Amino acid sequence: MLNVGVLGAGHLGKIHLRLLQQSEKYNLVGFYDADDAHGKKIEAEFGYKFFNSIDTLIEAVDVVDIVTPTLSHYECAKQAVIKGKHIFVEKPITNTVEEAEEIRALVALHNVKGQVGHVERFNPAYLAVKDEVKSPMFIESHRLAEFNPRGTDVPVVLDLMIHDIDIILSTVNSKIKHISASGVAVISDTPDIANARIEFTNGCVANLTASRISLKKMRKIRFFQKDAYISVDFLTKQCEVVKMKDAPENPGDFDMVLENAEGVKKQIYFDNPPIPENNSILDELESFADAINNNTKPAVTLHDGTEALRVANQIINCF
Fold first, then answer.
1. Which CATH superfamily is domain 121-279+311-316 in?
2. What CATH number matches the domain at 2-112, 3.40.190.80, 3.50.50.60, 3.40.50.720, 3.30.70.20?
3. How confident is the model over 222-256, as pLDDT tens digits?
4. Which portions of this protein are annotated as coiled-coil regions (predicted)?
5. 3-class SS at 10?
6. Entry pTM
7. β-sheet bridge partners, residue 28
8. CA distance linking residue 203 with residue 209, whole number of Å
9. What phi and psi values does residue 3 have, to the nearest 5 degrees?
């Protein structure tokens, strides 16, 4: 088992602590939080060992799980990597691309591994259709959330849209040709609602919308490709796959057949795969343990996290 320590015991940090304690691949050593009183309260309530300094926690573990505010990701990661520790960093990887590039260089120098917490890669609905997404030509995503003061220290692009940016970059095998976007600050000092259009050199176009001032939650992405439409609902963990194939000569009474102007007939059919039950956060943490133990490439690399941040910043710079 890998000895692991958590930096940050906020909302998400507490979830990580609970899951790491349950995991059979990690031994939870303890955690650090900058708020001493809060840390002692968590220790008293849940029994996790509270370390009163980052250094002492890092020294005691093999893996450092960084769940602190984004602005501190760089310093926390740097301290851990220099001491030869593997790092799991919540998204976004760091506050700037330059910081992310430096962390990547340090990880290579010290021969350790790093993974970024783009948890939607482990969403069961996405996993069920991931292999069906092949050369999409149009992608549309909507990630809407009700207002919550937590996370408003960064633009909605870094808070919410970056999840979909990462999914799109991992499915479109092409370089970006052009990005256009608009964003509006309504409640916060940074944009609370944003829309972006990403055009790729292979002709694919992605249209992304994110809002943290909506009346209802929504986390959906839709892929349109030749002869197929694929929809993923990250929130309800449901998916839909609609495909087309050449129509049979003698279609059945319940077959759905379309005929175009040239007389070509296509049959529409549904091919919805089963959705596995899983805990996405536990799965991403344990996949990192597997990468360390087997010396394999992490599921979401530091490069992936850096590129998602790079595109997110390009979108923000359009505002």
1. Dihydrodipicolinate Reductase; domain 2 (3.30.360.10)
2. 3.40.50.720
3. 999 988 999 999 999 999 999 877 777 777 666 77
4. none
5. coil
6. 0.92
7. 4
8. 20
9. -75, 125
